[in-house]
Design goal:
By secondary structure, the protein is mainly alpha-helical. The protein has helices spanning about 10-30, 35-60, 100-124; strands at about 5-10, 95. The chain contains three helices and two strands; from the N terminus they run βααβα. A two-stranded antiparallel ribbon has the order 1-2.
């Protein structure tokens, strides 16, 4: 992973909010005769599932369980700070992708833990 990426938490949340707004608009269309009810309900359910899974992944990245790189996309790119973020003293929260060294350390730790669990399951 030569170039590290940063996920903008603000941008990620903004897109989740916009998706929820879209689902709300879809649900409002249920009363309109121009949409087929079954297809609309399926669209709502599947979109909500995507939002739920994205939020679970975001939670895991915030807690350090997964590399934020798997969340990165052009819409939430935080590699370049937004204009004014430095001047306002606050700004965005960035989730940086793990370095190669950090990835290796975490994988070794997980392997060690998995070996312990395997050994324990064999003795019980």
């Amino acid at each position: 992973m030569g170039d590290r990426k940063a996920v903008s938490l603000s941008d990620e949340l903004y897109h989740l909010i916009r998706t929820i707004d879209a689902v709300r608009q879809l649900s409002e269309r249920l009363g309109e005769a121009s949409f087929e009810e079954g297809a609309l309900l399926l669209s709502i359910a599947s979109t909500l599932l995507v939002v739920k899974e994205r939020m679970k992944l975001l939670d895991r990245a915030v807690r350090g369980s997964v590399d934020p790189f798997i969340l990165w996309c052009a819409e939430n790119d935080g590699t370049e700070p937004l204009e004014g973020d430095k001047d306002e003293g606050g700004g965005d929260v960035l989730l940086w992708s793990w370095s190669d060294g950090a990835t290796v350390r975490r994988l070794r730790k997980q392997l060690k833990s998995a070996k312990r669990r395997l050994q324990k399951s064999r003795t019980t």
